[in-house]
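BUG-269 | component: ligand-complex export | severity: low

The export step for S-adenosylmethionine jobs runs without errors, but we want the raw record kept on the ticket for reference. Input record follows.
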Amino acid sequence: MDGIEQWRMVDEGWGRRAADFATLMEPAAAREYLYVHRRLGIGPGTTLLDMACGSGLALELARLQGADVAGVDASARLAAVASLRNPDSRIVAGDMAEPHFPAASFDVVTSFRGIWATTPAAMAQARRVLCPGGRVAITFWGEMAASQGGPLFAPFRLATPPQIDHQSDMVALKRPGVAAQFLTDAGLIPGEVFDVPFVLEFADPEHFARGLAATGPGYEAVMVAGEDAFREACLEAAAPFVRDGLPIRATMRLLGIIGTAPAATHISP
Ligand SMILES: C[S@@+](CC[C@H](N)C(=O)[O-])C[C@H]1O[C@@H](n2cnc3c(N)ncnc32)[C@H](O)[C@@H]1O
């Protein structure tokens, strides 16, 4: 990447339409956040770090449940929205693979579609900041072909072949045993992979096109095909989901796994 660290480029894609991302895309994940927070049993006093926190809706919902939260995201413009939503929390604009937070300082770490098979250094950070016995939950896409809403992501395939290959590498966690090994490699005790509810919902195809264009993979596709062709591809993808008087609504296959940091070993005097 010719001297520029890769994470610094993230804001180009994810941050260029931060307000659209925050209001059109991120709310769809509310079901996912609620479900994972409940599985983790977060509540008053839980200290929680969200890695790749995007525009911070998951943090806001965790705060409403009484948690003390912090977040990190590579996109400065998304991090600015996360700070707006969580004014008293520490939100870092930076690389999640870097040590921004003290070791053993969180009960819980979450990452919603933010830590991927391609980011083991971020997983190592999650492990480092967890208190003994603390837990990390990550979510990642399951089989798109088996998802009702899989066709809605077809416009991402307008990106270059290497970018599409990279997207495939990122989702390797969905393969049997890979996510558990990924956590084990980071020094965590993995639980079972579980299904996480996820629904895409948009007022109409134009809102869908605008929302999808605000994502990183959307940006990659726009750079190749141009804004107009990307918008057209989105309208075409959304057409089968249009029903009179109802929003576009489609479920996506999303998976999650929880890893536990080993309890502190007691050394006898
Ligand atoms: C699929 S989005 C998920 C965002 C958020 N977790 C959500 O639920 O909407 C991926 C996020 O990862 C962030 N990201 C990508 N690379 C990163 C890195 N190296 N360090 C921190 N954040 C990163 C992007 O800026 C983006 O917000």
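Assignee comment: Attached the raw record above. The mean pLDDT is 94.
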